[in-house]
Amino acid sequence: MVRSNQTSMVTEFFFSGFPKFEDGSLLFFIPLFIIYLFIIIGNLIVFFAVRMDTHLHNPMYNFISIFSFLEIWYTTATIPKMLSNLVSKKRTISIIGCLLQMYFFHSLGNSEGILLTTMAIDRYVAICNPLRYPTIMTPRLCAQLSIGSCIFGFLVLLPEIAWISTLPFCGPNQIHQIFCDFEPVLRLACTDTSMILIEDVIHAIAIIFSVLIIALSYIRIITVILRIPSAEGRQKAFSTCASHLGVFLMFYGSVSLMYLRFSATFPPILDTIIALMFAVLAPFFNPIIYSLRNKDMKIAIKKLVCLQKVLYASAS
């Protein structure tokens, strides 16, 4: 589809995925603000609980702490702008601001996806090759995988964002979503938008590849666990994987709904709900899953809370 380039170039986009200010958008502001605070505080607690408890200084918990750290910035890339749009009648974002939001949101999301894949491989080695685990998952390799996940997640998106930044936008300027995303933005370009299909295919391949690695890892893990003779041993093995499996299902389940539909179109309200699922609700439940489903994590969090109380009491 090619549009006429006779109109003036667009300098900002307007978000049309929000309820109108007159329709009570403030009612959405309060719960979203509370959820955002919970995400920040919850993930900070998980991060510092792992870092300050020496019993949790192992690859699995290191990956969990890095994931929690990324979640803070992943939500910060979109939710603050959502909050400002809910209390503003303008609801616009500059083209540069939109490109930056897309870059950081998806780069952090890519890093999280790679990290989840790494965590699945870590659990696979720990359960399927327990005797070789200490020699395979060394602290050095663990650090390399964590740093590599972040670096690759940010680098892989640079060519795509650079290409989008060269496209002309001459109107209309309404993004039918609650934050900047590839498909809604590309549809506004005043040029051939057949590249949207190529973008969809690239994203789909990346998602399916990661899901397959994690799924195959857990099929093998479950097979090995079911062969453990004692019920207590099976319960312990399952408990070490349950948290990661829950986060994986939430993260990739919502991402798949958003990016594995190709040319299928959903009603605007359903688009908004799906976007909220992977941008807000999944990060909201992650610290709950990691803290409530893990005995060691609960102990570490209690220690952290007690330490804060002691420091507060001594300061006062």
Task: Evaluate the radius of gyration.
Answer: 22 Å
**Which of globular, elongated, flat, extended, rod-shaped describes the shape?**
globular
Distance between the termini: 67 Å
Strand order of the largest sheet: 2-1-3
Number of helices: 12
Helix content: over 70%
Which regions have little confidence, pLDDT < 50, spanning 5+ residues? 1-6
| Helix-and-strand structural type | mainly alpha
Family: Belongs to the G-protein coupled receptor 1 family.
Organism: Moschus moschiferus
InterPro entries: GPCR_Rhodpsn, GPCR_Rhodpsn_7TM, Olfact_rcpt, Olfactory_GPCR1
Domain G-protein coupled receptors family 1 profile: 42-290
Structure description:
Helix 2 (about 60-75) packs antiparallel against helix 4 (about 95-130). The chain has helices at about 25-50, 60-75, 80-85, 95-130, 135, 140-155, 160-165, 180-185, 195-225, 230-260, 270-290, 295-315, and strands at about 10-15, 90-95, 175. The protein has 12 helices and 3 strands, in the order E-H-H-H-E-H-H-H-H-E-H-H-H-H-H. A 3-stranded mixed sheet has the order 2-1-3. It has about 325 residues and is an all-alpha fold. Helix content is about 70%, strand content about 5%.
